[in-house]
Specification:
- By secondary structure, the protein is α+β, with helices and mostly antiparallel strands.
- It folds into two domains: 3-11 and 396-660, Rossmann fold; 74-389, TolB, C-terminal domain (Neuraminidase, 6 Propeller).
- Helix content is 15%, strand content 32%.
- It has an eight-stranded mixed sheet, with helices on both faces.
- β23 and β24 (317-324) form a beta hairpin.
- α5 packs across α6 (528-539).
Length: 675
C-alpha cells in the first residue's frame, strides 16, 4: 500500500545509524610487489575514523561479505597529515621483501610492517620520533634500497612555516634521511626512473595551487640536493610558462620516457618528454575527479606489455582508454575505449593492473551501488566482479533516487551568460506519494574545495534525503574540476560571486521546471561549500534555510589562521585587497541575513578553525536569527567518527524540519536559539 504523506515526512530505511554501521571508506588500491596480493585502505567510522590497511581474501568474503582481512595492527591508524589532506600514506618495499611502510597518524612516524612475519613482530619506526616530520607519496627505489618521499618539517611552531622537501629515507633502522629537493614551497610525486639514476617530481610556489601552475623537474639522483635558480641540476621539463598545471609524472617502465598530465591544451591531457602535443588529445580531463588535493593520486598507468591505460569522465560516466605508445615521438595508436557496455561500472578509478596485465583492479560503483573493489578482464570484457564493498547495506531500488545531469543558465563574474552543471535527485520512496503539495523541498549541495567536483557515485547521505521526500541538487558550480581549465578558472578572483550565483541559478532553474518548492529551498555545504552556503544565505534571497559544515564565515580570519598548503589559496580566488575580503565575508554582512542557519564544526579543525563557526553563531544569535551550533569533540576537517556523522545528518534533518514545519519522524532535539 502506498501512503499519501507530505514531502519530508516519509519514513526511510536509510537512517544515519544504518549508514555508519554498515559502511567504510575504501581507497588507495595497491598490488603488493612481493606477493601479488591486492590491498587497500579502509576508513572506519565505527572505529573512531581509524584507517586500516586491508588485503583481499576470497575466504573472508564467503564468511562475512567484507572480502578482506586486516593487515595493519588494531592500534594503528594509517593516515598522513602532509598538506593536512594527506594521501599516499602507504608504500611497499621491493619484490620479495614483504615490507609495507605507512604513516602512523598519532606520531606521523613512518612505520615498517613485515607481512607474515614468523615471529609476529610489531611494526617498527624508520623515522625519528617527536612529531616533527610527516611523510607521504613514497616510492621504493631498489638500487639504493630507500624510499623517495615528500616530507614536511614542522620544526617551527607556526603551521605556515612548515618546510616541504623530497627526501630519501633509509629503512635500515638508522633513521637517516637525505634531502633530494628543497627550496620551493611545495613538492609532490617523487618518481625515480626505472634505472634509478633520475628523479622526477612536481614542485610549485605560493600563491599557486597544484591546479594553477606547477613545474615538472628531473634531477640526477647523484646530484640531487638543494634547488636554486642558479643550478642546472634540476632540469625543467614542463611548466616553464608559469601558468600551466602539471601533475602525476610517471616513467614508462620499458622505454624510460617520462609521462605526465598537463592542462596546456585547456584540458588535463597526457604528455611525454616535454613535447607540445598530447599523446591522447581529448576535450576531457584525465587525472581523476579532483587532482591535487591529496598526494599519491594517479589517473593513468602502464600495462606489462607497455600499453598505457587512462580514465576520464564523460556525461557523468567513466571511460577507460587503452592504447599503444610504442612510438616515443608520436601520438598513441591502436586506441580502444571501454565503458558500461563492456561490463564496467558507471564510475571507477584508482586502477592497478595484475602482473599479467589482463586483470584490472579498481574502485567503482554507481548511483545505486556502493563504492566497491572490482576486478575486470581486459581480454574478455565481461561484467566487472565485485570483490569487496564499502557497505554491507542493501537497500531496495524502491528507495534509491537515480540522478540525472542538468545544465542550467547562469552568469559569470562580469554578468555574461554562461552554463553550469549539477545532478538532480528526485524524491524516491515507492512506499509514499504526495498529492497535497505541488513540489518537494529542495536541498542544494555545494561541494568543498572549491576546486573540486561532485559525482554520481552512490552517496547514502544524499539518499537519506531523497528517500524522505526531499529533492537534491548537487551542483558543480563554476570553478569545479572535470570540465576543463576555462571552467575551473571561473573562480579566479570570483569566489563568493560565481559559486553563489550558480547554486542560486540551479535552484531557480528547478523551481521554474516545477521540480522544487520555492518556499522550501535549503542549502548545505562543507568547508568551501560551507562558505558558498553562508554566502548564498547572506547575499541572495533564494534560500530560506541553510546548514554550514565546517564552513568559512570570515575570509580575513581564514587567511590568517589556515595551514600552509592553503595559506595563499585565496590570492587566486579573491585577490589581495582586504576590502574585498570583508566585502565577501558573510560574517561582515549578517544584517543582510534573515533566515535560519545550522553550524556543524569539529573542535580540532586546522583547516577551517572552529572560531569561524563560533564567531558566526555569536553574531547570528545577537542579531536574533534562528540558529544552532554543534561542536564535535576530537573531529578535524570533516567528520570521521560514527556518532558525529550520525548526529550531523540527524541534526540537519531536524533543523530543516523545525524551520519548514515538517513533521519529521523521530527528530532529534536541537537547541535552536531565536526560533
Amino acid at each position: 500500500m502506498v501512503t499519501d504523506s507530505p514531502f519530508g515526512t516519509w519514513t526511510s530505511p536509510i537512517t544515519s545509524k544504518a549508514i555508519t554501521a554498515g559502511s567504510v571508506g575504501i581507497g588507495s588500491l595497491h598490488i603488493d610487489p612481493s606477493s601479488g596480493d591486492l590491498l587497500w585502505i579502509e576508513g572506519r567510522p565505527q572505529e573512531g575514523g581509524r584507517y586500516v590497511i586491508c588485503k583481499y581474501d576470497p575466504d573472508a568474503r564467503i564468511s562475512s561479505e567484507r572480502g578482506a582481512v586486516d593487515v595493519s595492527p588494531k592500534e594503528s591508524n594509517v593516515r598522513t597529515r602532509v598538506h593536512e589532506y594527506g594521501g599516499g600514506a602507504v608504500t611497499f618495499g621491493g619484490k620479495g621483501s614483504k615490507e609495507i611502510y605507512y604513516s602512523e597518524f598519532a606520531t606521523q612516524r613512518l612505520m615498517k610492517l613485515v607481512q607474515d612475519s614468523p615471529d609476529g613482530s610489531e611494526p617498527t619506526p624508520v623515522t625519528p620520533d617527536g612529531n616533527r616530520f610527516r611523510f607521504a607519496d613514497g616510492v621504493w627505489e631498489p638500487s639504493t634500497l630507500r624510499l623517495m618521499m615528500v616530507r614536511e618539517d614542522h620544526l617551527e611552531p607556526h603551521p605556515k612555516d612548515v618546510v616541504n622537501q623530497i627526501v630519501a629515507v633509509s629503512v635500515d633502522g638508522s633513521e637517516s634521511m637525505e634531502v633530494l629537493a628543497t627550496g620551493n614551497d611545495f613538492y609532490a610525486a617523487p618518481r625515480p626512473s626505472p634505472d634509478g639514476t633520475k628523479l622526477a617530481y612536481i614542485t610549485w610556489n605560493h600563491p599557486n595551487m597544484p591546479w594553477d601552475a606547477t613545474e615538472l623537474r628531473v634531477t640526477q639522483l647523484a646530484d640531487a640536493g638543494a634547488f636554486t635558480d642558479e643550478t642546472d641540476k634540476h632540469d625543467l621539463i614542463a611548466g616553464e610558462d608559469g601558468d600551466t598545471s602539471i601533475i602525476q609524472p610517471l616513467w614508462h617502465p620499458q622505454t624510460s620516457d617520462l609521462y605526465y598530465i598537463s592542462d596546456q591544451s585547456g584540458y588535463w591531457n597526457i604528455y611525454r618528454n616535454g613535447t607540445s602535443a598530447s599523446i591522447l588529445p581529448l576535450n576531457f580531463d584525465f587525472g581523476g575527479r579532483a587532482p591535487g588535493w591529496q598526494l599519491g593520486q594517479q589517473g593513468y598507468g602502464f600495462l606489462p606489455d607497455g600499453k598505457i591505460y587512462a580514465t576520464y569522465t564523460k556525461d557523468g560516466e567513466t571511460k577507460l582508454i587503452v592504447a599503444s605508445v610504442a612510438d616515443s615521438d608520436g601520438p598513441a595508436t591502436n586506441i580502444e575505449e571501454y565503458g558500461t557496455e563492456h561490463g564496467l561500472p558507471p564510475q571507477f578509478g584508482g586502477i592497478v593492473p595484475s602482473a599479467s596485465g589482463d586483470t584490472l583492479y579498481f574502485i567503482g560503483g554507481s548511483s545505486s551501488i556502493p563504492t566497491s573493489v572490482y576486478s575486470w578482464s581486459l581480454s574478455q570484457c565481461g561484467p566487472a566482479i565485485q570483490l569487496a564493498s564499502s557497505s554491507s547495506l542493501k537497500f531496495s531500488d524502491n528507495v534509491i533516487s537515480v540522478p540525472r545531469q542538468v545544465e542550467f543558465p547562469t552568469t559569470d563574474s562580469e554578468g555574461k551568460a554562461k552554463t553550469a552543471f549539477g545532478y538532480y535527485y528526485p524524491p524516491q520512496n515507492k512506499a509514499y506519494q504526495c498529492t497535497m503539495e505541488k513540489a518537494p523541498p529542495l536541498l542544494v549541495k555545494a561541494h568543498g574545495g572549491p576546486t573540486a567536483c561532485t559525482s554520481t557515485s552512490f552517496n547514502p547521505a544524499i539518499q537519506f534525503w531523497t528517500s524522505r521526500g526531499f529533492a537534491v541538487l548537487d551542483v558543480d558550480y563554476g570553478g569545479s574540476t572535470g570540465y576543463g581549465r576555462e571552467y575551473r578558472r571561473r573562480l579566479r578572483n570570483s569566489w563568493g560571486i560565481v559559486d553563489i550565483d550558480d547554486v542560486c541559478a540551479g535552484a531557480q532553474y528547478l523551481v521554474k521546471e516545477g521540480l522544487a518548492d520555492p518556499e522550501r529551498l535549503c542549502i548545505d555545504g562543507g568547508s568551501a561549500g560551507g562558505y558558498t552556503t553562508l554566502g548564498a544565505l547572506t547575499f541572495k534571497d533564494v534560500f530560506t534555510a541553510g546548514c554550514s559544515l565546517y564552513g568559512i564565515g570570515d575570509l580575513t580570519a581564514l587567511a590568517g589562521d589556515t595551514h600552509k598548503f592553503e595559506s595563499r589559496y585565496l590570492d587566486g580566488l579573491i585577490g589581495k585587497d582586504e576590502a574585498i575580503y570583508k566585502d565577501r565575508s558573510p560574517i561582515e554582512h549578517v544584517d543582510s541575513l534573515s533566515c535560519p542557519v545550522l553550524l556543524l564544526q569539529g573542535d580540532e579543525d586546522k583547516i577551517v578553525p572552529p572560531n569561524q563557526a563560533e564567531m558566526m553563531f555569536s553574531t547570528l544569535k545577537n542579531k536574533g536569527i534562528p540558529s544552532c551550533i554543534r561542536l564535535y569533540k576530537g573531529e578535524q576537517h570533516g567528520f570521521r567518527k560514527a556518532e558525529n556523522i550520525e548526529d550531523a545528518l540527524d541534526s540537519e534533518l531536524a533543523f530543516f524540519g523545525r524551520v519548514y514545519g515538517i513533521d519529521v519522524p523521530d527528530a532529534v532535539q536541537l537547541d535552536i536559539v531565536n526560533l
